[in-house]
Write a structure and sequence with these properties.
Layout (H helix, E strand, L loop, with lengths): L4 H16 L4 H14 L3 H24 L3 H25 L10 H21 L5 H22 L27
């Protein structure tokens, strides 16, 4: 099949434009955020969070270097909100993480990276900006623990968690009844 000259010309122009005028970091971040927000699959949302989260970390680093700690806080709070949205989407579509771990694993790994990033930010920022970031860090730690418990529900040596309102099982007696 032969391509027309206009098709090749359009393709050449597109490649030239993309190579010569790359999107700014903010445009790329906005596009990734829009893609994340539109995504309906929990697994795809979790996997997309890797790219989006890395872009958010880069944006937070850039704002931190410029001394714009309000922007750092807003960016990392949005990251936390995105993680929460991905966790909820996964739990809704694939409640058994142990059997259907795709998405859960990638999300847990990225949340660990996010916790380290936020820890670095907290250390570098002025004291008055730290408390909100410490809350974000704690939220991420809580979600990371939740993801680990979903992925690995049976842990040797750990007592089973009793649901509130559920009756507690009575221990079986080893003695024989007459």
């Amino acid at each position: 099949m032969r391509a027309s000259g206009t098709t090749l010309g359009a393709l050449f122009c597109l490649l030239f434009f993309a190579a010569g005028f790359p999107l700014s970091a903010a445009d790329g971040l906005a596009e990734l955020q829009a893609q994340f927000d539109r995504e309906t699959s929990g697994v795809h949302k979790a996997k997309l969070l890797g790219k989006l989260g890395d872009a958010q970390f880069e944006e937070a680093r850039r704002a931190g270097k410029a001394g714009d700690y309000d922007a750092v806080g807003l960016t990392l709070e949005k990251y936390r909100d995105n993680v929460r949205a991905a966790v909820e989407a996964l739990k809704k579509q694939h409640p058994d993480a142990e059997k259907h771990s795709s998405g859960y694993k990638q999300l847990e790994i990225h949340v660990g990276k996010g916790i380290r990033e936020i820890r670095d930010v907290i250390i570098a920022m002025p004291e008055q900006y730290r408390p909100p970031m410490q809350l974000v860090e704690q939220d991420l730690k809580d979600m990371d623990l939740e993801l680990l418990r979903l992925l690995f529900p049976r842990r040797p040596g750990e007592q089973p968690r009793v649901q509130p309102g559920a009756s507690t099982p009575k221990p079986e007696s080893t003695e024989k009844q007459p």
